[in-house]
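Hi support team,

I'm opening this ticket because the web form for multi-chain structure prediction keeps timing out on my end. I have pasted the exact lines I submitted so you can reproduce it. The total is 1368 residues across four entries, so I didn't expect it to be a heavy job. Is there a limit I'm missing, or should I split the entries? Thanks in advance, R.K.
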Amino acid sequence: MEKKDLLKQVIKHIDIKSFDASPIINSMREMSFSSRETANAADIFNMMIAEKGCTNILTIAGSTSAAGCMQVYVDLIKHNMIDAVVSTGASIVDMDFFEALGYKHYRGTQFIDDKFLRDNYVDRIYDTYIDEEELQACDSTIKIIADSLEPRPYSSREFIYEMGKYLSENSVKKESLIQTCYEHNVPIFVPAFSDCSAGFGLVMHQVERMKEGKPYLTIDSVADFRELTDIKIAAKTTGLFMIGGGVPKNFAQDTVVCAECLGIDASMHKYAVLITVADVRDGACSSSTLKEASSWGKVDTVYEQMVYAEATTVLPLIASYVFHKGDWKNREPKNWTKIFQK
Amino acid sequence: MEKKDLLKQVIKHIDIKSFDASPIINSMREMSFSSRETANAADIFNMMIAEKGCTNILTIAGSTSAAGCMQVYVDLIKHNMIDAVVSTGASIVDMDFFEALGYKHYRGTQFIDDKFLRDNYVDRIYDTYIDEEELQACDSTIKIIADSLEPRPYSSREFIYEMGKYLSENSVKKESLIQTCYEHNVPIFVPAFSDCSAGFGLVMHQVERMKEGKPYLTIDSVADFRELTDIKIAAKTTGLFMIGGGVPKNFAQDTVVCAECLGIDASMHKYAVLITVADVRDGACSSSTLKEASSWGKVDTVYEQMVYAEATTVLPLIASYVFHKGDWKNREPKNWTKIFQK
Amino acid sequence: MEKKDLLKQVIKHIDIKSFDASPIINSMREMSFSSRETANAADIFNMMIAEKGCTNILTIAGSTSAAGCMQVYVDLIKHNMIDAVVSTGASIVDMDFFEALGYKHYRGTQFIDDKFLRDNYVDRIYDTYIDEEELQACDSTIKIIADSLEPRPYSSREFIYEMGKYLSENSVKKESLIQTCYEHNVPIFVPAFSDCSAGFGLVMHQVERMKEGKPYLTIDSVADFRELTDIKIAAKTTGLFMIGGGVPKNFAQDTVVCAECLGIDASMHKYAVLITVADVRDGACSSSTLKEASSWGKVDTVYEQMVYAEATTVLPLIASYVFHKGDWKNREPKNWTKIFQK
Amino acid sequence: MEKKDLLKQVIKHIDIKSFDASPIINSMREMSFSSRETANAADIFNMMIAEKGCTNILTIAGSTSAAGCMQVYVDLIKHNMIDAVVSTGASIVDMDFFEALGYKHYRGTQFIDDKFLRDNYVDRIYDTYIDEEELQACDSTIKIIADSLEPRPYSSREFIYEMGKYLSENSVKKESLIQTCYEHNVPIFVPAFSDCSAGFGLVMHQVERMKEGKPYLTIDSVADFRELTDIKIAAKTTGLFMIGGGVPKNFAQDTVVCAECLGIDASMHKYAVLITVADVRDGACSSSTLKEASSWGKVDTVYEQMVYAEATTVLPLIASYVFHKGDWKNREPKNWTKIFQK
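Hello R.K., no limit was hit. The queue was backed up. Here is the completed structure from your submission:
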């Protein structure tokens, strides 16, 4: 077996518009266990969409973008269901930006010798393969963007906005999440921005500039938190649609508390949906329940639903349901990007 | 809140015929993680159905029948996709027989004080409620059937056949799994038959007869194993479609080894699908992988797929897919019940 | 690599008497998460031991006996901490009886090609190996015992008592769980007795006798339930110490309800400890919480503790703690085996 | 019940020096499942300690510090077993810095109404309580430190160093992780530094300065990655001891790849231990296996061990074992903090 045999079967991203999951969700609503949780999650997400004035924040952790859900997120943005995104770096840079540059993810298997993959420069995410040589193009493009910008502290949102601008001129795959968000004025935050392929490019940028004795760009993670809190304060009513836990989940939840620290009485997130397989019992934030979050004053408990499922199985059902329900057609775009452009 | 408020929202069982999950499964085939596993499981189950001469064994553990999947299993039998069933007692007696007698399961919540439920004689399965007083009717009907039979050792299959006969005359809900299997000559095995509502009825039968000094009926679990092995030997090619692990999974897998013990060279189960959330790491059979089973000579590893999901979310998709694919239309019924009627 | 290389590193069973885990448990009592759960479980188990008149039932599912905890269970019996055992067949027959006949379990790895194991007749349980040819000696010894007995229905308890008698004359390893229980009048119940190596031996027995037109022994699983309920009724106060879930857990819990069916007002199990990695969310009994069980009237909720851990890590700590605490020294043996010998 | 009743039972941190877990680890080495994994993890951690020249990186995610393991980490630093720390913000700021200021964590329960906790300003982590009013002192102290520093970009390491300096003068509890690391020249990195209580203080600092039209301090997450990579490059041989996954795990692993991006041929991490309950199947980094990491060229696969356990149960055993083994007595301190003080 050679490298090209490993990288043959391209991941195709599911199109929630091409099928209508409504009859399935409608049945699941009258069942039990995770199926009812899935239906409740779909109902709460739709309430978020239908409520006039509610700002909807999507948080992404895990590798669902590589695993075939990339277009789901794009469709949520395009159809005006989401107003801000908080994500891990991998989902935004290594996966979405990577495909925007024309590269692909491949169907593989977890039952393989990882040394063989290593020898072929093939990276593995569970049962999915990536060509590491292609991923390096991602790192170097980040460096090119960093090199082109004024050397000062940026929030990740500002930097990702510049990535969107870059893609609007240079993308191979036109409909990436970054570019779609750029075009729809939906800000993307990556609170741990150097923990991904972007980190490699930005370290290269800084090291080169240091050698040259020149000033360099930095990424101020405090600015991210400040800006997302600005949105929370301006938005008033908010809902969270969370795929996986991690830093994005905690970060988005914490904006309520941060607003309070600034002396502003922000309401708790009114709606919250969380899809995760994380285990609640280790006290980690990825897995902490929405009820636990309410003890911290972050999330209200009236409209909250956790779905204990690997997201690729239930997210397409939920997203297809809300898409076909069509309440998004009456929504006004929030254009939160614009509040940072004054 | 009173008891009647707890028992208001009836569980409705999903109808896999009423929607076509094919476009979803077809998309999932080109994705990753549990969605691809789900599609592969659907493909393998369809191969089992399409292969001429293959006997398909359904194993059931967990409470999917109470949770809204009861009709899924009935449809698999009615449409000739399954030739034998191995199950826990709860799924067959407490859930299926219970509903056949006219009772219902109810949508509840896991966020409730269990003492309050106890005081109201409401039993809980995760987020599902049962009226305990109704469940007692189940126990006593089992006793009535036992009292009516010749006092000798029965396999669980024989006894469940008598339950089917009883239902064909007395059922309130006509299309139960037990009655459907009875009518389609599909045997049902419950290897731990006294570990459910049936146990209560049968203990009452035995104790009453003992007090009267009369002979009583017994349930011979060895006979179950012997009879299922007879089917494995007669069937030659076999496939397993397993929902949950537990005793049913191990029991069905072990027939290969049992045939060998009898000096007959039986082939391993050619196909195997397992849907489970069990954790592989405790060495329990519920969770042991199909690859591990192959080390024991039970399951071949060419066509096997584990899906790590709570079954109510993915089973409806898989079953709807194979139903609409329609390969079952060309299958001959195996009528395995008849080999025990000589 | 040859078969003998696979079967080199013998599993040695941990000796809870050889170290004192008290300082660790005492520290864990003031910590959080699973460590505090572990300490609470140890405290409740010790309360069961210290309470005059309380009958303690040990339930075993999973493969902890193969994995190095076999001597833990023996020590609990020898030191009079347990009065009845309910187990899966594998733990009692394939593991304990197997080692009593002189065979061993071996340390292996889960990272191996299972086809290679299959070719060498090596069976795998997660990271543990068994010589399949040795396991067949287990099956045939069961047949020898069955052949030697009067052909009538037996409870599994009765049959396992005969296995104890056999071992008291023929065992290679003297201190097996079966033999120790036999000698200490502690009954062992295996509600799904044919779902293990015993099933192979008993099917061989039945098939041979049928061919010869002779009567044969049967295993009446109803009798198991009846007898365990007899103990529950006679014992009045009871506590459950449960390693894994499965049929044993449900079976032991259900005796309360069964007593009620017989018109006897039995108290709920007063104490309950459960160590498991099972996921509560699929509604399976293995994973259903002790609080859920209380809605069914099975388990009281004052002294109950679930420990979400793979048992080999925490069971040795708990058992060492109660051993060194020494409250068992003041216990009267219950000798429940004797109530079936009238 | 009042607030003071909720906050009565203080968490006490386990002291690995006060008991010797060696006999337990030595037994577990010859068992199976998670117990053997635990022993192997202890052995690999000890190899890291014993190997001359190996730099040992501790990564922390989850809430083990709040749950009673805080002193474990301090003891690893004090006894020269760890040379760098990468952590989530919560473990360092909300937990360790919080206790250093004189506050406590409390033993609570997950079976409580979170609205009641909210009304009492009590925050919950699974079964652990925190007084939210005390936590605000943590936020404001961070602001005080930020206000006192020159307004420029800082790596989290630099800022935490200043926190150590602050504690060396102002701490109530003397032996915090931050202060101990400060005194032993062990750098601490928190790649998502604003995702915790520090974020609140830093946002307050920035907003106040912005209102005043003054320059403010920023946290450059790129600098963290650059600096940790500097250590990886200088250290050559490295080992990872990872408690939980999350950003810290990925961040530490990625330094190998980052070094390559800078044109330096760094070796993979030679040793890796990971203790986690995360589920591998969602493709998230928290749960991705060490073998998967090797496909990315991050971790070598000769000496790696994953332990699937909630860390509070097994970490004390492992740490006590290596402490009593004593190989740390022959180690030279690495003093990595000093390379940033040129």
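A quick check on our side: Chain C has one domain: 8-328. Let us know if the file doesn't open in your viewer.
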